[in-house]
């Protein structure tokens, strides 16, 4: 399960029927082996191997939008032409948000160049 860019690696109970242990990592760390093993008192023991990547070897490309060359008039026309009433009818708030986000992202990708 990934929440806010953190991944929880424990997916089975560690004390009776409850998950009481959190082993969470960001994408630049990885858990190679994870086992819920023998009991210590009334808790299960967690055994895992954490692989840490050298931050000096990370290559991360950041996309920078070049707003000076953007076509804001065309972007506005494109977004104004979308019939949101039809797209969002019978949808819940989260589905409506995702539809609008996808439409804005797609239009932005076409009308705002990157450096």
Architecture blueprint of SSEs:
Layout: E1 2-3, E2 6-8, E3 24-25, E4 29-40, E5 43-52, H1 72-80, H2 84-88, H3 93-111
Antiparallel strand pairs: 1-2, 2-3, 4-5
Explain the overall architecture.
- The protein is α+β, with helices and mostly antiparallel strands.
- 29% of the residues lie in helices and 25% in strands.
- It has three helices and five strands.
- The strands form two sheets. A three-stranded antiparallel β-sheet has the order 1-2-3, with no helix packed on it. A two-stranded antiparallel ribbon has the order 4-5.
- A hairpin with a 2-residue loop joins strand 4 and strand 5.
- Helix 1 runs antiparallel to helix 3.
- It is elongated and about 65 Å long.
- The mean pLDDT is 80.
List descriptors.
single chain, 115 residues, alpha+beta, three-stranded antiparallel beta sheet, two-stranded antiparallel ribbon, 3 helices, 29% helix
Order of helices and strands: EEEEEHHH
Instruction: Please report the total strand number as a whole number.
Output: 5
Strand order of the largest sheet: 1-2-3
Radius of gyration: 23 Å
Q: Biggest sheet: strands, sense, closure?
A: 3 strands, antiparallel
Q: What amount of the residues lies in strands? A: 25-35%
Q: Which class do the helix and strand fractions yield? A: alpha+beta
Gross morphology is elongated
Count of alpha and pi helical runs? 3
Short structural description:
With 115 residues, this protein is α+β, with helices and mostly antiparallel strands.
């Amino acid at each position: 399960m990934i929440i806010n860019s953190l991944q929880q690696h424990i997916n089975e109970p560690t004390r009776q029927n409850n998950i009481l242990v959190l082993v969470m990592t960001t994408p630049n760390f990885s858990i190679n082996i994870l086992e819920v093993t023998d009991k210590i008192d009334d808790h299960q023991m967690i055994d895992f191997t954490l692989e840490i990547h050298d931050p000096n070897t990370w290559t991360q490309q950041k996309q920078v939008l070049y707003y000076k060359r953007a076509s804001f008039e065309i972007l506005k026309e494109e977004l104004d032409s979308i019939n949101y009433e039809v797209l969002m009818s019978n949808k819940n708030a989260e589905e409506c948000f995702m539809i609008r986000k996808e439409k804005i992202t797609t239009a932005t990708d076409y009308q705002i160049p990157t450096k």
